[in-house]
Amino acid sequence: MSKYPVIVRMAKSHGSRNTLIPSMVVLHHTAGSGNTENEVSYLQSNSAGVSIHVCIAKDGTRYRMVDDERSAYHVGYSKVSLGNANQVSLGIELINKGRKVPPFDEYPDAQVESCAEQVVEWMAKYDIMVVTSHEAIDTRGKFDPWRFPWKKFWMYVGEAWQNQPKNV
C-alpha cells in the first residue's frame, strides 16, 4: 500500500491493448508549467490526444488517469519492436519542467519514491521486462525525463520490492 495519495482523474484519450499485456514502463516528464493542476488537466483532455496511466506530482501524489487494461497515448514514435509501444507499455508522467538549462527543475524524493512504488506495484502485477526513459526508445529527439535521478529511483525500487506484502 502506498504512503502517497492516489486521485482518480481519468483521461478522455485511451485505446485498446488488443489483448496484449504490459511488459514495459516508460517514464516521462511533463515539460509544461510545472503546475500540477494545469498538467493533470492537460493530460485529461488535449487536442493532441496525449494521455498517461499515472501522473505524479512533486509531493508524490499520484493521479490515476488511464486504467492499466487500456492503452494510454504517451510514447509516439518508438524503437520498440514489440508492435505499438503504447499497447505494450504503462506510462508515468512526472511533473517537471524539463529545463535543459539552469535553474533545473529537480525531482523531489517524494516524487521519485512514489514513482518507484508505482513501478513495483506494476512489476508485481505484470511481467514487466523493461523500465525505461522516453528518451531511450524515442526516434524523434525526446529527452525525458531530463536529469532524472535513476540511481535514487532504483534504490527506492529495491526498498519497495522488499516491502511488498508476501503471499503465504
Order of helices and strands: EEHEEHEHEHH
**The CATH homology group name:** Peptidoglycan recognition protein-like
Largest sheet: 6 strands, mixed
Shape: globular
| Number of distinct helices | 5
Low-confidence stretches: none
Assembly type of the chains comes to: single chain
Strand order of the largest sheet: 1-4-3-5-2-6
According to DSSP, the number of beta strands is 6
Tell me the distance between the termini. 17 Å
Question: What is the CATH top level name?
Answer: Alpha Beta
How would you state the average pLDDT, rounded?
A: 92
Task: Return the structural class.
Answer: alpha/beta
Question: Mind sketching the topology for me?
Answer:
Layout: E1 6-8, E2 24-29, H1 36-44, E3 54-56, E4 62-64, H2 85-88, E5 89-94, H3 109-125, E6 130-133, H4 134-137, H5 150-162
Parallel strand pairs: 1-4, 2-5, 2-6, 3-5
Antiparallel strand pairs: 3-4
Task: Summarize this structure briefly.
By secondary structure, this protein is α/β, with parallel strands linked by helices.
Q: Your description of this structure?
A:
The protein has 168 residues and is an alpha/beta fold. The chain has a single domain, classed as Peptidoglycan recognition protein-like (Lysozyme-like), CATH 3.40.80.10. The protein is 28% helix and 15% strand. The chain is built from five helices and six strands; from the N terminus they run E-E-H-E-E-H-E-H-E-H-H. It has a six-stranded mixed β-sheet with strand order 1-4-3-5-2-6. A hairpin with a 5-residue loop joins strand 3 (54-56) and strand 4 (62-64). Helix 3 crosses helix 5 (150-162). The longest helix has 17 residues, at 109-125. It starts with 5 loop residues before the first strand and ends in a 6-residue tail after the last helix. The mean pLDDT is 92.
